[in-house]
Recover the amino acids of this structure.
């Protein structure tokens, strides 16, 4: 599943290529979108900006209309020079925005709608989003009007005090932008057992895990010139070894990079996503035995 930093980077790339360009081609497989586009054509409008909010992407057109998409598990946006061959089959195209020199294609995007700014403001899922970890990461133009509110995240976490910290980190209504890979990595960095309920953690624990999350997401959206690591994808360890990019994620049964203990893994949640952790580096608080 794409995480907040992946969507952020995709939005930034789309913004660079599409902003201030006029739409010359618009297609979608969504009947609701096509009905709106028939009455309020997208072709001829200017793309004003492409931004992200948590894992939602917003493409803003002139004339107060915007395309909202969410990738869920399998969706992705690609951008190609006009006329270039796509890297995925055309049948996976769900929505397409073309300009004179480029085409942005949303493949397998499960959720897409055309909204007015008023509808966006009332959008239930977007309104309910917790503070965005990348809120002040610079935005697409290097400017941001939002700042990240750590106290608000802590308040929302405390409202789920019986839930395991690992589940709370994935709850986009508590904090927006964390997916399954970063969840395991952030908990390792913060030294927290993924299955401990929030009520078993101190404020200092919560601050540590939130700060680790912000640091990791920010590191993953840095400009290529600011980091040597872009070409080899996500990494959290700061190791220069390209084979040592993650601390625990997908490393079940392998020795912990810090202490050598075997990394554990377990399926959790409704969609049985795997959680990875080191039982020695991430011990449960002594007063609590986590519900495993
Ligand atoms: Zn360890």
């Amino acid at each position: 599943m794409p995480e907040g930093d992946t969507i952020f980077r995709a939005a930034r790339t789309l913004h660079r290529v599409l902003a201030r360009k006029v739409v010359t081609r618009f297609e979608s497989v969504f009947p609701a979108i096509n009905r709106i586009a028939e009455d309020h054509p997208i072709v001829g409008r200017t793309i004003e900006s492409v931004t992200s909010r948590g894992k939602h992407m917003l493409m803003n057109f002139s004339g107060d209309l915007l395309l909202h998409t969410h990738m869920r598990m399998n969706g992705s946006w690609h951008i190609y020079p006009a006329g270039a061959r796509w890297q995925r089959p055309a049948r996976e195209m769900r929505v397409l925005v073309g300009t004179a020199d480029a085409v942005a294609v949303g493949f397998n995007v499960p959720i897409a709608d055309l909204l007015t700014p008023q509808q966006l403001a009332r959008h239930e899922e977007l309104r309910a989003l917790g503070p965005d970890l990348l809120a002040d990461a610079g935005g697409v133009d290097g400017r941001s009007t939002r700042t990240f509110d750590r106290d608000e995240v802590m308040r929302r976490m405390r409202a789920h005090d019986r839930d395991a910290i690992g589940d709370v980190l994935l709850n986009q209504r508590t904090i927006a932008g964390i997916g399954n890979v970063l969840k395991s990595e952030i908990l390792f960095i913060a030294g927290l057992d993924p299955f401990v309920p929030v009520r078993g953690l101190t404020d200092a624990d919560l601050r540590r895990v939130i700060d680790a999350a912000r640091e990791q997401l920010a590191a993953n959206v840095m400009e290529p010139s600011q980091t040597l690591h872009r070409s080899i994808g996500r990494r959290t360890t700061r190791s220069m070894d390209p084979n040592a990019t993650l601390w625990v994620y997908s490393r079940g049964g392998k020795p912990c990079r810090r202490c050598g203990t075997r990394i554990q893994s377990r399926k959790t949640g409704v969609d049985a996503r795997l959680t990875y952790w080191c039982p020695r580096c991430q011990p449960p608080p002594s007063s609590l035995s986590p519900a495993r």
In short: The CA atoms of residues 124 and 208 lie 30 Å apart. Residues 139-143, 224-233 have pLDDT under 50 and may be disordered.
